[in-house]
Design brief:
4-stranded antiparallel beta sheet, alpha+beta, single chain, 8-stranded antiparallel beta sheet
């Protein structure tokens, strides 16, 4: 009888170990390789629509690779969504002022992503680019930026923000949503640091009739 109890305990322990290992592998895969997500806002319409399911590629974050112009990315939402003109004059990089400080807090926030808010936007400017938004258009390094993914007639204005004439700092990107009038983006909160970029939008997995790789240009 005693031996039977020991064997049952060993069996249960083996199952617990297997489950723990599986959870660790799943967490590591989700953080370093990729994960699914759901579009929850209209800021990338019509490229991405609400309730569509996407697969995110997180390998670029793992290797700390700068995204390319035109890429659709996800990143941690800044702590302040709209900065004043004076704040942007002092620093045109988005603010992240509510970061957890404890080891457990950092793990649950950055790895488990509990209560973490992320945005999906398109990369418009890379480090060193001079971005100017004027006359309803986007100019990069004194040349009009062609955006074939925008709907006809879309006008790019300041979007309630003041970051409309800026040289993108090193290790940051300038992002905007394709639905310019319904997007809170770098025009409002400034440029996004490379370390806050979480992933590149890779594949649309739902609805099934639109399944496939998402073109970023």
């Amino acid at each position: 009888m005693e031996e039977e109890k020991i064997n049952r305990f060993k069996d249960a322990l083996e199952w617990v170990v297997c489950i723990v290992i599986a959870l660790i592998i799943a967490i590591l895969f989700r953080y370093f390789i990729g994960t699914p997500t759901i579009v929850k806002q209209p800021s990338m319409y019509p490229t991405l629509k609400e309730d569509q399911r996407l697969w995110l590629n997180r390998w670029s974050r793992t290797v700390k690779k700068m995204p390319e112009k035109g890429d659709i990315i996800t990143f941690e939402a800044p702590s302040t969504s709209v900065l004043t003109e004076e704040e942007l004059k002092k620093n045109i990089v988005a603010r992240y002022e509510k970061e957890p400080t404890s080891l457990l807090g950092k793990f649950t926030h950055n790895v488990l992503e509990i209560n973490k808010v992320s945005y999906i936007k398109r990369v418009i400017g890379l480090p060193g680019d001079h971005i100017v938004i004027s006359d309803g258009k986007v100019f990069i390094n004194d040349k009009e930026f062609t955006e074939s993914y925008l709907q006809p007639g879309v006008v790019t204005d300041n979007g309630r923000g003041y970051c409309t004439d800026v040289v993108v700092p090193q290790n940051t990107v300038f992002v905007m949503g394709d639905n310019r009038s319904q997007s809170t983006d770098s025009r409002c909160f400034g440029c996004i640091p490379l370390e806050k970029i979480e992933s590149k939008v890779w594949i649309r997995i739902w609805p099934l009739n639109l399944f496939g790789k998402i073109e970023n240009k």
